Amino acid sequence: MTGPNVATIDVLMPVRNGVRYLGESIESIRQQSYQDWRLLILDHGSTDGSTELAAEYAGRDRRIQVLPMADAPNLAALLNRGLSLCDSRYVMRHDADDIALPERMAQSLAYFSNNPRCVVMGGEAIMIDGDGVKIDYLERPLGPDGVTAACFFYGPVIHPTVMVDLAAFRKLGAGYGNDFLNILPADQSLSVPQYAEDYLLFGQMALLGHCSNIGRPLIKYRVHANSVSTSKVLDQIRVSFLVSRFLSQTFCTMKNLAPFDPVPLSNHAGHLFNFLPGDLHDSLDRMSSALLNGIGDTPAVRREIAFRSVVTAKNPVLLMARYLLFEGRYHRHQSERAIIRNWIRGRLRPVKYGFLRNLQMAQ
């Protein structure tokens, strides 16, 4: 314990009309092998019985608190308000439709103990559908340099797997949805109230080298028709483009490097965007130079550059050939294989893939 009546871990769980999965999610916190925690359920104006179910759990377990926050204007504001109420050593994020694996807290604490410079850590996830059936497996890069190298192209951590060192987090002035680094001029700053507020936060943490992942699953990550990742995918991609470019501009300014555009090489929401206008080889050369000079010539950086080289191919046969060579050299990630598969399927079925081509690409 960090002090009288203060838990070691505060868990932030936002919920809005999530009664179907809420009980299972809460139970997964209660069944953790590590038991020194407090669960803060941030009720964002639920009307489906979620509030009442959460209150029932709070009545049975004094470690659970239900906090009405219907007036929070967006998710970033909701989470920042929740963070302001935390007084623990660590803060863990958990979604109301996901399932925490029993050793999640214990494994996260062990990682912080062994990596004292880490401020934000995440992990891998078993993807499940609305009925709890496994449909995929999600990986993320390991080590600070791996996360930094990847952060320009997609979210470097899986948000509901995250735990943060609260004191270090606050010392940096970090929060959801805001530019807390203040490297760029005010007219180039970025605010993201929703859809990619976590990407903006953890991307900036990655630029500082304070963000890493553990190479094991921490949660069962649920994807269903009402989840934001399904219902708001176009909005997420549009905002993620803005974040990618903001992170690149910030990084190159910090390191005094020539700028590069990461968007045509990115894979937001599991999709590639190499069909966008522009010379991909020029983008690749600029990106490679920036990563090698700004982060260092490490195996993780070389791996990221190699994968981005793969995705410059615009022909399905060439793309698959390049990917198979890449996979033969590096450890296979299911997430990367799924990205390649999605792209090839999209090329073969352009009607289904066409919704991505209609994205407005203002830079």
Describe the structure.
- The protein is an alpha/beta fold and about 375 residues long.
- Among the domains are: about 5-95, Spore Coat Polysaccharide Biosynthesis Protein SpsA, Chain A, CATH 3.90.550; about 255-355, no CATH class.
- Helices cover about 45% and strands about 15% of the residues.
- It has helices at about 20-30, 50-60, 75-85, 105-115, 145-150, 165-170, 195-205, 230, 235-255, 280-295, 300-310, 315-330, 335-350, 350-355; strands at about 10-15, 35-45, 65-70, 90-95, 100, 120-130, 135-140, 165, 210-220.
- Strands 1, 2, 3, 4, 5, 6, 7, 8 and 9 form a 9-stranded mixed beta sheet that branches.
- Helix 5 (about 145-150) packs parallel to helix 11 and helix 12 packs antiparallel against helix 13 (about 335-350).
- The longest helix is centred in the C-terminal third of the chain and has 23 residues, at about 235-255.
- The chain is globular.
- The termini are far apart.
